[in-house]
Every structure is written in C-alpha cells, then in structure tokens.
Amino acid sequence: MTETQSAPVREAPERAVAAIELSGVEKSYVSHGETVAAVRGVDLRIAEGEFFSLLGPSGCGKTTTMRMIAGFEDPTAGAVYLHGSDVTGVPANKRDVNMVFQSYALFPHMNVFENVAFGLRRKGVPKDEIRSRVGAMLGVVDLAGREKRRPAELSGGQQQRVALARALVNRPRALLLDEPLGALDLKLRQLMQVELKRIQREVGITFVYVTHDQSEALTMSDRIAVMNDGVIEQLGTPREIYERPATRFVAGFIGTSNLLGGEVAGAGERAVLAGGPDERIEVPLRDGAAVAVGERLELTVRPEKIGIGLDRPDEGLCRVRGTVTEVVYLGTSTNYNVTTAAGADVVVFLQNATSADDIAVRGDDVWLSWDPRHSYAIHPDA
Amino acid sequence: MTTLTKPETAAPRAPKRRRRISGLRLYTLVLIGWLILPIAIMILFGFNDTHGKQNFRWEGFTLRWYVHLFDKSDLTTAVVNSLTIALLSTLITTVLGTFAGLALGRYRFRGRGATNIVLFMAISCPEIVMGASLLSMFVTFNLPRGYLTILVAHVMFSIAFVAVTVRARVVGLDPSIEEAAQDLGAGPWARFRLVTLPTIMPGVVSGALLAFVLSIDDFVISNFTSGATVTFPLWIYGSTRTGTPPQVNVMGTLIFAVGVVIAIISARRNARAVR
Ligand SMILES: Nc1ncnc2c1ncn2[C@@H]1O[C@H](COP(=O)(O)OP(=O)(O)OP(=O)(O)O)[C@@H](O)[C@H]1O
Ligand SMILES: [Mg+2]
C-alpha cells in the first residue's frame, strides 16, 4: 500500500480541485402521482483524502445524495463533479468511485477472493497483479487466509470487511459508505469505527460516510455535513458542529443541548438578554452578527459547560436561577435537570471527579453558571 | 421396544426418544416402499422372459429386451420424438420463462398483474381443457397437427412453471448486489452473466427439470395436438389394446435412470451452493 500523507484536511481549500463537488444538486421522485423532494439543493466540496460524513435523521436524503455521487441516480437539477470533471449522467460503472452498501451486497455465489477480485477482473488487470493486490487488501482488512470462504460462512463483521476490501482494492478516488456499520452490534460497531479510521489513514482515500449516528460521525470524521429534510443545515468539523451548532435543528440533533431565549436588553460585542433579578445571560456576537435591542434571541449552551451551585456565582459568568427537578447518578458523572425561573429546562453534566456527594438534591434552588464564551447564538431565521 | 433398560446404560428420557425415531423410521420406510413399488415392478418386468403378447406374469429372468431394445422401430421413433420434444421445449421454455420470471420478480411495470394471473391460469388450467382448446385453436388457424404443434403446446404449458420458480428466487435476492456489480465496473451484459444469472441459477435449473419432466410424460395435451406424430406416452397408450411389449419397460427404466442421475447431481450442486 502506498503510504499517503494522512494529515486530516480541516477545511476544503477553496482553490484546489475538490475530490467530490456537488453544485446545486436536487433530486425529486415521482411516486403515486406526487412529487417528493428527497434532496433540495445541496452544495458540497469534499477535499482529497478527507473523511467526510453526511449525518442526519432517517429520510433526510443522505442515501439519495450518496447514490447521486455513485451514479445510481441522476440529479433532477445541479451537477456532480469528480476531481473537477462533470460526471452528471455518467453511469456508475464508468465512475471512479466505489460504494460499500448497507446490506454489504456481497456476491453469494463467489468466495471471498472472487468477490474482492471482481472489480479488478472487470478492468482487465493481469492475473498476477490481481492475486497480489487482493492478497494485500485482505491483509489490510485482517481477512488473510479466508479467501476460499463463501460470504454465508462469514460473520457480520467479516462480511463487512469483505465489502470494504472489494471496494478499496480498486483504488477508487473516493469510497462511499452508506451506514456500513448499521447491521453490527454496538461492540463490533465501535471496533469497526476504529478499524475504518485506521484503514482510511492507511490507504489515504477520500471517504464519504453516511450515518444517522451522531457519535459515530463525531468520532470518525474530518468534517460533517448535517442534513435535514433534503438540505445541509451545517457543515464543519466535529468540534465546530458540536460546540457551535448553527441552527436549532443541529443543536437538538447533535448531543444534548440547552436552549435559552430572551429579549435583547443590550447589544455590542455581546448581546445581553433580559432575565430575572440578578440573572445575567450574555452571548458573544460572532462573525459580525448584529441584533437590535428588543429583538428575541436564542442561544445554546452544552450541558458540560454549565456549573451548578447553591451560592451565587462569580461576577463575569453568565448566571441563571433554577430549581432541580431530577438528579441522575451515572457513575463517572451526574446529570442534573433544572427548570429555570424563566421556565426553560436545562440539563447539566457534572463529572464526579472531586465531590463524593451530590451538590444539590431534587427541589433545591440552585444557581447555574457558565462562561459567556460558551453561549452560542442561533440564527434567528433557523 | 425395551422398556426395562438398565439405569447406567440409558438416561431417563432415552427410551421415549428412541421409540419416536423408530416410529418415524417405519413411516419413512412405508412411504418409500409405497412410492417405489410401481417403479420396481416396471424395472423388474423389463427383465421378464415372457413369450406371449402380455407382460403380466413373471416367467424368468432375461436380458433379451435390452438386446432387442430397438427392434420395434415405431416405438424407437416415438421415444426419439418424446426426447427431442422434451429437450427442445425445455430449452425454449427455460430461456423465455427465466426472463419472464426475472421481469416479474424485479420490476414493476404495466401489465405485471395481468401477467401473473395468466401464469397462474396456465398452471391451474385442467390439462384436458387446455388440450381441447389448443386443438380447436390449431384447427381454426388451419395448422397441420404434428411434431411442431406438440412442441408449441409443451412450451406453452410449461413456461409458467419456469417463470414461477425463477420469480420466487428473484424475489428473495438483495437487489443491491446487481448495483454492487455495476459499481465495480460491470456493464449490463456482464452484470447479468456474472451476477444475476448465477444467483438465480438454482431456480432456473429446477424450472428446467420441471419443464423436461412435464413434457416427456405428457399424454393428454399431446394426444390432442399430435396429429399423426407419435410420442412415447401415446405409443404406450396405443399398445395397451394389443399388449405392451417389455421394451416399453426397458425404455422407461432407462429414462428413469437418467432422471435419477440428474436429480442426484442437482441436489448435490444445490447443497454445495447453500453452504
Ligand atoms: N426511489 C424512490 N422513490 C420515491 N421516493 C424515494 C425514493 N428513494 C427515496 N425516496 C424518498 O426520498 C427521501 C430521502 O430518502 P433517503 O433514502 O435519501 O433517506 P436517508 O437519509 O438515506 O434515510 P435513512 O437514514 O432512513 O436511510 C425519503 O423521504 C424517501 O421516502
Ligand atoms: Mg439511507
């Protein structure tokens, strides 16, 4: 295997040719006389060597988007580019990308070797080269010595790796994976997540990964596109998406997020929201965003950023009063559900590193506090 | 059955289990005997040293009929007719029926429901009715009855069986394996040859065997559509009035033997494909 540089690409460079580019791609189906929009205008640039995830709930158009990249569906509008050349309308067998299907779609009448060699034989690669490349690839996916097995004689995880090898052995310019771990149990899934990451680093091929599992996307990806209802809601690194959800949908879909709202009482570098007596809610206005006094604004704070205590927090922190409604002990951490004076439900995760006892019990009146840098304003129109 | 087993030789449940197995064994043996007896008699009387016109009474062992197998030239012609019609109709039926089964199992199209109903009708229609209507159709179209009309009729009534067995196989397949083949660079023809056909092969083979068997022993429909052409079953039926010669038993034995060999090979291959 050629050892390609494995440094993850953080941001798709504007100038360089993208491995995969979708421009204004739309897809609608006609079913029972009605037009159903599955994808409604997607723009994407995926860089060479990137591990890119399409994340979103069921039915949001992830598979449809991926099938348009693979060439199984033609977009209703827009264009698909692979390495700069327009491939819209080119059938799947003529595209230099390979796909790993959710059902694996192994050929049941062929053994492991024949399955993996299928693509190379189609391309007319010489026999000796096929043998060595298939052998090497089976080594990469840890299946050496199982060449003669039929797919039905393999475990789910092994079948998964055969499917992976069958696609990767062709050295495609990009590998498309549609929920490849969906059929595996939790333990195997976590193992395969690590394996997939290792293999991707080893072969240095662009991976486009479809999943509805947010933790899977967060752990594996260089960048994530969060999709909802046929559009991309937010595109960014896992950290950006987690820490700074751009829309209410993203905030709700990725992890647990607390939504607080209020009227803007003061605006400047930071917006200050009106709250109860002695409360203070601030949110930095980023990227030149501007709000007017009197407007309604919503913000999110992640549960692990919030502190909880019976005493009034230090000056300079955001602070809100509330009542504890539930305390859930989870071993390494404790969850507090708090209803604020304004009526919002807030979840707080607290590591059980120092305190042996719970800080508060159900029914206690508490102070919640966090650094204003951890408040993120949600676009008012989202 | 031993009910008083020594405690150290059998676990408490063992006697009960053993009795159930032997009951099953008995049933199996009776069933096999029931099925095999007529065939055994057919084979046996092919070796009967009979001298009269009838072949009903055992008169001693001989290989005479195997030596003089082709002495009755009209019987030989009838067997050759039956075999070639069966082979040709199986070939045509398997090709047409496979494509029909593929289309019905894989695609939704206008007329799919109607096609399914027509197939079902072809299977469930009584042979005697189908034979009579085929005859009246051939008469109406003024087609001379003979070898060709038998062939057409056999293709007609066995195509539905192939289509149905292939359709059952196609429905059970994951459609994405064909997409996977396309994804790996296979064009439409390569996809069919390398992936679709091999995966539906068990269905195609059983359909073909069924078509062959249906054709070679068909009497009713052949009787209506044969004109002056004689097939093996028609010849035997005609001979019963004067006496069926032992060559018929020998021909039957040989056809049966070939059938058994094919069935064994097919079962072996299926078992291997499943593993
Ligand atoms: N062939 C089709 N005909 C009609 N509608 C379709 C077709 N394929 C997909 N759709 C519709 O398009 C929408 C998006 O489907 P898609 O399969 O892309 O979702 P997904 O994000 O992959 O969901 P999941 O996580 O459940 O796989 C759905 O509403 C679906 O019903
Ligand atoms: Mg999907």
**If you average the pLDDT of chain B, what whole number results?**
87
Strand content of chain A: 25-35%
What oligomeric arrangement do these chains adopt? heterodimer
Overall morphology of chain B? globular
Instruction: State the major sheet of chain B.
Output: none
State the fourth-level CATH superfamily of the largest domain in chain A: P-loop containing nucleotide triphosphate hydrolases
> Helix count of chain B?
11
CATH architecture of the largest domain in chain A: 3-Layer(aba) Sandwich
Helix content of chain A: 10-25%
**How many strand elements of chain B?**
0
For the record, give the distance between the C-alpha atoms at the N and C termini of chain B, rounded to a whole number: 38 Å
Apparent shape of chain A: elongated
**N-to-C SSE string of chain A, H for helix and E for strand:** EEEHEEEHHHEHEHEEHHEEEEEEEEEE
Can you tell me the number of structural domains of chain B?
Answer: 2
Task: Characterise this structure.
The complex is a heterodimer of chains A (382) and B (275). By secondary structure, chain A is α+β, with helices and mostly antiparallel strands. Chain A is built from 8 helices and 20 strands. Chain A folds into 2 domains: 20-248, Rossmann fold (3-Layer(aba) Sandwich); 256-378, OB fold (Dihydrolipoamide Acetyltransferase, E2P), CATH 2.40.50. Chain A is 22% helix and 33% strand. In chain A, the strands form 4 sheets. Chain A has a 6-stranded mixed beta sheet with strand order 6-7-8-3-9-10, sandwiched between helices. Chain A has a 5-stranded antiparallel beta sheet with strand order 13-12-11-14-20. Chain A has a 5-stranded antiparallel beta sheet with strand order 15-19-16-17-18, with no helix packed on it. In chain A, a hairpin with a 2-residue loop joins strand 1 (20-31) and strand 2 (34-46). Residues 1-13 of chain A have low confidence and may be disordered. Chain B folds into 2 domains: 28-64, no CATH class; 73-244, MetI-like fold, CATH 1.10.3720.10. Chain B has helices at residues 14-45, 64-67, 73-106, 112-124, 127-140, 147-171, 176-183, 188-216, 220-225, 232-239, 246-274. Residues 29, 31, 36, 38, 56, 58-64, 212 of chain A line the site of adenosine-5'-triphosphate. The site of magnesium ion has 3 residues of chain A, from helix 1.
